[in-house]
Structure prediction request, 181 residues.
Amino acid sequence: MGVMRVVAVLLLLLGATGFVAAQGSQSADVPALDGFSRGRAGGVDVQWRVDGDMLEVQMAANTTGWVSVGFDPSRMMADANMVIGYVENGEVIIADDYGTGATSHDRDTNHGGTNDVTVVDGREVDGTTIIRFTIPLDSGDEMDKALASGTTYTALASHGPDGADDFNTYHADRGSFELEL
Prediction:
């Protein structure tokens, strides 16, 4: 069997096992916001800008379930400032979470912290969930790391499967990227 034929067979087998598809789902195709920076990972389109002492963020994914972004983890999800939200019956349900471990998170308020997320907008359009919110760069909350304009951070992005209007369903896709404020 020729080398090209062996490569083709291997690619077919890898594709059939899902290995090739493990690169993640396609990010939501949403318009660029004027004056915002942009990053994509884990099938999530994340756009952000610093406005005074606030960080404004839009997260969008091809799902009718939850969408999440996290900032500055120490290891995997540990110690990250996390915001997770979904849209149910036209209402945005959002949570201010803290990465309690490498693969876990919980509400800031369950650990003596405060909810510092303010919803700006949210909607589901043609199978895409889009949520825009603000958080303070420095909330003063022990559960939130202070963020500084001009600094680069690791950002986590993930989303749940269609219909996962909750904070507990395991992600359908996840990833990370570098974000400069």
